[in-house]
Amino acid sequence: MLAVVRDLFRHHLEFATGAILVGIVVAMALLSLVSPYPPEVAWVVPPDLPPLAAYPMGTTSRGQDTFWQLTFAIRNTLLFGLAVALLSRLIALLVGLLAGYLGGPVDRALMSINDTFVVVPLFPILVLFYFVMRDSMSWAALALVMACLGWAYDARLIRSIAMSLRSREFTETAIFSGMTTREIVTREHLPYVLPIVFSTTLNNMNWSIGLEVTLSVLGFTSISTPTIGVMIYWANQHTALVAGIWWWIAFPVALVVMLFIGLFLLAVALNEFIDPRSRLTRMGGGAA
Amino acid sequence: MAGYGSYLLKRLGQFLLVVVVGISLTFLVTHLTPIDPVEQTIAVAAAFGSTSPEAIDMLRRSLKELYGTEGSLLEQYLRFWARVAVGDFGPSLSAFPTPVSELIGRALPWTVGLLVPATLISWLLGNLLGGLAGYWRESRSLRFAGVVAMGLHPIPYYIVAFVLLVLFGYVWPVLPLSGGHRMNLEPGFTLAFLSSVLEHSILPALSLILVGVGGWFMGMRALVSNVVNEDYVVYAELAGVDERRILTAYVMRNAIVPQVTGLAMSLGAIFNGAIITEQVFGYPGIGKLLIDGVHAGDYSLVLGVATVSIVAVATAVLIIDLLYPLLDPRVKVG
Question: What secondary structure letter does DSSP report for A69?
Fold first, then answer.
């Protein structure tokens, strides 16, 4: 396993770039553990100072140290992405494996529901959700709702793999040796789809973090929990750009863009690693 | 022809399912949360000092039917559908007493006019460049385009729009940042008005295109690099068929088919992006209407926009699905 990671790091530019970017972001999030200030406290440092040695990323108009505030924001954003991704994986795995293994009418029914969730524009529904919840909106409620809405695309991918597994010999053997559907799906098929599940997790994190940032920037989440979007929201509320406090916006945007590109590159690298055809193309230098 | 008929029926069924599930989701969201908005909203409306009791009554009636918690959940659900089916969301609170449907009707052409060209441009551009990049894998400039596409694709619409706003607002102010047209112009089919509309749509469209192109580019590049290795392409090359002809008629023609399905599947996400771009650039479409509605506490408007969005996206997907057999003749055979 370690050897694989090392080889990927050496020979796969996308993987190396992605790993470094995500590494920086995670390190930043871990720094929140040693922050000298609690996240919700304002007016602890002089406001509106530009990036200096004392405050490497300057201070905000709310008297917060941008650097340490950013460590909390990115930590919450990352945790949000992880929570949504893990929860929605459960639904995606359940739907994908069952539809792929059972086939027939179950497959058709599940896939029509699946395609519906792919097509329905979720943003207006999330906005409506905020509108109804208002002040009772919380970080966890949003994560739960987004997990319930964001599984469909990946369920289809998992289904296509499960379908090809169904016709393999070991599945027949399992059936004839008396394994139940639940056993076959979880013990025999699950290990095969795990690599693709891992790569969809990364993409799903990008999706949910992107939506979270967007909703927060508009002020449609609980704005007391610092996330990257909430940070930009406060900066906009204080018209940071007009006032020339660019560091309040530039650093969160730069950090979250690093996260998006990093996660995406890792997902691409993983996909290529999983698919032997593209690995061969890479080794053969593109010649067929 | 039998294959085509059953295909049509299946797509129509899927369309209805999207509409029903989407609108049921909005119903669930509005009814399963513990907050009752009707009296809250009425109180706000009354506080505006509206003089017309009939209009207030209309508002109360439509709110009760749309979100009312009287009767069983099934009754509520049926009443909700009765309203939604005819597009009657009652009067809007923030633009009292203009009906919500009229506000949406005014905003919808702006959104369609922004979204359709931007989507088509990014789809065509992404597929064209991606096809070329998949066919000429050694080309340096196309590889560079690939890196750019990869870097832009994962960034959410909001961030791209925001960066464009900063670039063209503070760094290089040449384009209008906000609104749908110049304020002093009378709307109409005059050259001055149309060119001002075009000018105002450049930045919102650009942010949609910048994010959109990357996905199509990478998808098409991967598809084309697979098709290029097919036996019939190798055979055509050996037979001395013109390279451009191989690329367009042999390779891209086949690789484009899954990309059409992809377009239908990603319309919902593109629509989400359009809502956000409109808000960033103050573009007078239904995205801005939605966000403004939330800020104004206009329940009917928010619900109306959400519902219309679902139906509109489902219809667009249906149109693509109906055009699909033109590209993929296998559908007709069944």
Answer: H
